[in-house]
Amino acid sequence: MIILNKRILKSCIFGVFAILISVGVYIKYFTSRCILCNSHSIKRYGAYVYPFVLDRAFNNDKNVKTDILYCRKCDFSFFELRPDNTAMAKLYKDYRGVEYQKLRQMYEPEYTEKFNFDLGHAAIKERKEHVGKILNKVCDISKIKNVLDYGGDEGQFMPDELSDCNRCVYEISNINPLPGIKKITSYDELLKQEWDFMMLCHVLEHVSDPAGFLKNEVLPLLKRGGILYIEVPVQPVYCSMDGVCTTGLHEHINFFLKKPSREYLQKIMSLKYSTLRPQMV
Ligand SMILES: [Zn+2]
What we know:
Elements: E1 2-5, E2 19-23, E3 26-30, E4 42-46, H1 51-58, E5 67-71, E6 76-79, E7 81-83, H2 85-92, H3 98-107, H4 113-119, H5 124-138, E8 146-150, E9 166-170, E10 181-184, H6 187-191, E11 195-201, H7 210-218, E12 222-231, E13 254-256, H8 259-268, E14 272-276
The site of zinc ion has 8 residues, from loops.
């Protein structure tokens, strides 16, 4: 979890370092550098794509393969295969809806309707309280007027302290927001508002270009002096000494394992973080 304050925003140029080759419906990076810190200190492991993802996003194209790369410098791991917008749109269409759930359960029998529901409703109280506690530490909550949870599902993770604010979720799935929370489905509509407080929880591990996404899509929405709360899972990657990884490519394609990789997120945006610590969710 990282809290960032836009007051310290400075311009930043993010180096282009990967040769992009478009093959069919996906983009593969052939890179020997870390996509976060640009380090060459990379270890490559053989990996695989989960059959569900291969079907839903890549039309079961058996040529779609990937390695996973580990950066020794910033403790960041990422799949070399970076799904493009088309593949992402297929993968996340009606996310966790009926069709998604059925196909996923066909490949992964443990992914039942109950499991699907529980994923979005686990530890709600604890997570809300945690965000509320952080907010109380870093700002005067009474000054927050406009709140956006980017990819925020029903808005169930917004802390109670913000109940009187204009609360919105940016959500492209068919889910209905909780009472008192407005659902926004268009990015252009988000731009019409300056957001005092934004939540970005469990999103960055899914996106193909986390640095570009933060700089080009998230930060332009934040009011000057506003607060951005980022939460990513601490998800281990299992690789053996002989170069084989048992963690396959599923929805998570980025693994911010330890503090250094999170610090690089902050560095990329040239923002100062107020709080930074891993949190198991
Ligand atoms: Zn790195």
